[in-house]
Inverse folding.
């Protein structure tokens, strides 16, 4: 259990497309790494050492200081049994914690319900980006999903309460034949009302924010800036989520150049994010988790890598106990997952359970759908 003066907050950055963990956290002394990746293996003199055996991709230098401070946890061999190589299915599994059935409720939707059981705050959970990640979905849990803080909100371009209500009625008439008038009208109207409330509140965040740090102009950079703005505005938001541009990490070809740019952006943005929070004396109650739906195949295909199984994930924060968690999967052919992929040994639900129990002080079992051994990465 972690004690902070303020309510603990979780930020999540999803790296969409399947980040190549093998070239993020590199087994730098393993000859098989170079044998199996004649095109993509990072030259030994460019790797940033973090342990006797492991090192960062050369573009991940901004994260090294958090490792040195003991504030960065690295989860290796992370995944789940019987891996799916579909982006959609694998991300659904990470979102819902249901690898064997198609889940409809998200783990953070369930957590938000426990954090705010009466839905008293329409901004307990906020997503930045297009659409709503399934991780945040749960019936009765309002979640603000924001393109950007200046233009967010369902129907916010419609002036006047009467015009807004008329528009909500139009929505209701469109959908009611399929669902039933009463239920759909209630749902649409409540959703619209919550969105309008959220829009009015969130639109004040940028005006409350000043900073001398500069985020990258990329989608990741700007959404992470929005997360800090929302956190600093004091809206009582407990869960903040964003996703990198769709399938950007899906590196079947031209991986060396593309991933170098992506990892540069992520590493610089995480550093900027933490620096911004620290300069505002607001880092003490924030934990950032960043992950991807799967890793990549061990062997390269000449210019990239195909979909894999086990990957890597990271958590950074003032209360994070830095270190390597899980065991680095073997590259030996006899110990690989079918198809030439890394075998998982750390269930992602163990990491979720640790966040829920030790950070949010919630009962993890009903949220992740079982009892998973915690990883103990909080100090």
């Amino acid at each position: 259990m972690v004690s902070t003066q303020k309510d603990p907050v979780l930020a999540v950055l999803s790296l969409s497309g399947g980040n190549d963990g093998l070239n993020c956290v590199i087994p730098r002394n393993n000859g098989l790494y170079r044998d199996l990746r004649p095109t993509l293996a990072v030259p030994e003199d460019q790797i940033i050492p973090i342990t006797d055996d492991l090192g960062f991709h050369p573009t991940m230098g901004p994260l090294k200081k958090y490792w040195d401070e003991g504030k960065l946890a690295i989860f290796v061999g992370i995944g789940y049994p019987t891996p799916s190589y579909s982006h959609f299915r694998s991300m659904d599994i990470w979102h819902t914690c249901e690898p064997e059935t198609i889940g409809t409720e998200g783990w953070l939707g369930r957590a938000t319900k426990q954090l705010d059981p009466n839905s008293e705050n329409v901004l307990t959970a906020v997503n930045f980006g297009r659409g709503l990640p399934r991780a945040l979905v749960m019936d009765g849990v309002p979640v603000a999903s924001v393109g950007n803080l200046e233009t967010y909100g369902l129907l916010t371009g419609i002036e006047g309460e009467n015009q807004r209500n008329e528009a909500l009625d139009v929505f209701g008439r469109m959908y009611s034949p399929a669902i039933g008038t009463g239920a759909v009208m209630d749902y649409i109207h409540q959703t619209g009302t919550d969105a309008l409330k959220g829009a009015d509140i969130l639109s004040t965040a940028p005006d409350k924010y000043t900073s001398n740090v500069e985020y990258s102009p990329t989608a990741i950079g700007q959404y992470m800036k929005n997360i800090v703005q929302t956190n600093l505005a004091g809206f009582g938001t407990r869960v903040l989520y964003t996703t990198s541009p769709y399938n950007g990490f899906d590196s079947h070809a031209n991986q060396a150049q593309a991933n170098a740019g992506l990892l540069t952006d992520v590493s610089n943005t995480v550093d900027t994010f933490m620096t911004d929070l620290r300069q505002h004396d607001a880092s003490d109650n924030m934990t950032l988790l960043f992950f991807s739906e799967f890793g990549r195949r061990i062997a390269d295909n000449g210019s990239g890598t195909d979909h894999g199984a086990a990957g890597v994930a990271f958590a950074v924060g003032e209360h994070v106990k830095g270190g390597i968690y899980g065991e680095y999967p073997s590259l030996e052919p006899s110990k690989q997952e079918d198809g030439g992929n890394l075998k998982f040994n750390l269930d992602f639900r163990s990491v979720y359970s640790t966040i829920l129990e030790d950070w949010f002080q919630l009962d993890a079992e009903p949220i992740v759908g079982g009892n998973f051994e915690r990883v103990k990465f909080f100090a």
Summary: The chain has ten helices and twelve strands. The longest strand covers residues 72-79. The CA atoms of residues 168 and 189 lie 6 Å apart.
